[in-house]
Design goal:
With 376 residues, the chain is α+β, with helices and mostly antiparallel strands. The protein has 3 domains: 175 residues, Immunoglobulin-like; 142 residues; 34 residues, no CATH class. It has 9 helices and 18 strands. The strands form 5 sheets. It has a 5-stranded antiparallel beta sheet with strand order 1-10-9-5-6. Strands 16-15-17-18 form a 4-stranded parallel beta sheet, with helices on one face. Helix 2 packs antiparallel against helix 3 and helix 6 packs antiparallel against helix 7.
């Protein structure tokens, strides 16, 4: 019963387009008192005062309604919108009335619009468009539809608070957050270290000079560096092929909070690894394209949902493997034996030392969660 009454009240409040302010209530009370005194005393001067007060009240309502009529709203967003980051948006307010301008407008919106602060527009001239750049903020990823905005005004005398709602049917796709969170930077640093260790190989580009290791070929010995250091030094060369990282997001997650954390971590890794020039192969049990850009992956992550009962996917061979899952044993049985498996106890999930803000993913994971490096 309480839920039904709540819905009825919300419906009435949404459909209510005009509310009397405290000043309007005092003015109305004064009109009633002057009218009562005029009819009791029969004084013509009081009747003239009553007529002036009534005409002021009627004109206030008419001008207020006219100011909200004929307004159009359009919002221009950047092509890519990320959650939990302020996005600059261009708001265009057009007045379709040919003669009458609109004064003292306030624009507000629901949480789905991303507009957190009320926007004040002093005047919109007749037949013209006013453009304002405002920051929008979306707290969660996903598709945002049927965004509701309100134009409101107290003009001209503040007797009433009148509003008119505008609903935009355009859909906005919001990507997961790509900003670092506690634990993400440490994980990225570990992956970058693994990538760095895999860069040496049998290519033709010089990589570095290092001490000689037993059983290595003597043809790569750098005799000049050896004479300088009086120890055998060899040259290493970078691999000709690019390093590829396979990132797997396990959809079989029982904890929604952990799954959202894993989605944010996936978006963070995809964005920052791609920016560093690393090739990414992203996959889930239901999405495993051979080639996908960072924006393709972010679009998929914007709407992905957990699904129970799915078996882990088979990993890509000859790649650096990263898996985000809450079931490391099943992933190991499915072939992810060389992967760095990120589990809920690895990703930072609760309060910790405010000085560091991160936890050691390798220490938290334990030996069976660690990444075992491939021997070439």
């Amino acid at each position: 019963m309480r839920e039904i009454w709540k819905r009825i009240r919300e419906s009435l409040e949404e459909s209510m387009r005009q509310q009397i302010t405290l000043l309007g209530f005092v003015f109305t009370l004064m009109v009633v008192l002057v009218g009562f005194a005029a009819f009791v005393s029969g004084n013509n001067l009081l009747f003239l005062l009553l007529a002036a007060l009534l005409s002021t009240l009627l004109i206030s309502g008419f001008v207020s309604r006219l100011g909200l009529a004929g307004l159009e709203l359009d919002i221009e967003l950047p092509p890519h919108v990320v959650a939990r980051r302020e996005i600059p948006a261009r708001i265009n307010i057009r007045n379709r009335k040919f003669l009458t301008p609109s004064f003292s407008l306030h624009l507000s919106g629901t949480a789905e619009t991303g507009l957190r602060e009320e926007l004040y527009i002093p005047v919109v001239p007749a037949g013209s468009t006013v453009t304002e750049v405002v920051p929008l903020y979306f707290r969660k990823r996903g598709e945002y539809k049927n965004k509701t905005f309100w134009f409101s005004t107290r003009f001209p005398f503040g007797f009433t608070f009148r509003r008119a709602h505008v609903r935009l049917e355009e859909e906005v796709l919001v990507y997961p957050s790509i900003d670092p969170q506690p634990g993400f930077d440490l994980l990225l640093a570990g992956i970058s270290g693994d990538l760095q260790s895999h860069q040496r190989g049998r290519g033709t580009d010089f990589y570095r000079i290092r001490p000689y290791v037993a059983d290595e070929s003597a043809r790569h010995v750098d005799w000049r560096a050896t004479a300088h250091t009086r120890e055998l030094q060899v040259r290493e060369f970078a691999r000709d092929q690019d390093q590829i990282v396979t990132l797997f997001l396990d959809l079989d997650a029982s904890d929604p909070e952990w799954f959202e954390r894993a989605v944010d971590c996936s978006a963070f890794l995809v964005w920052h690894l791609t920016e560093s020039g690393t090739r990414i192969r992203f996959m889930t049990q239901r999405w495993f394209p051979e080639e996908a850009t960072a924006y393709d992956i972010l679009r998929y992550l914007a709407t992905v949902e957990p699904s129970r009962g799915l078996k882990p996917a088979f990993p890509h061979e000859y790649t650096l493997q990263i898996a985000l899952s809450s079931r490391p044993e099943e992933l190991a049985d499915a072939g992810w034996t060389r992967a760095r498996i990120v589990t809920p106890d690895v990703l930072y999930m609760g309060p910790d030392d405010p000085g560091s803000g991160v936890v050691d993913s390798r220490a938290a994971a334990g030996p069976h969660h660690d990444y075992h490096r491939r021997k070439d």
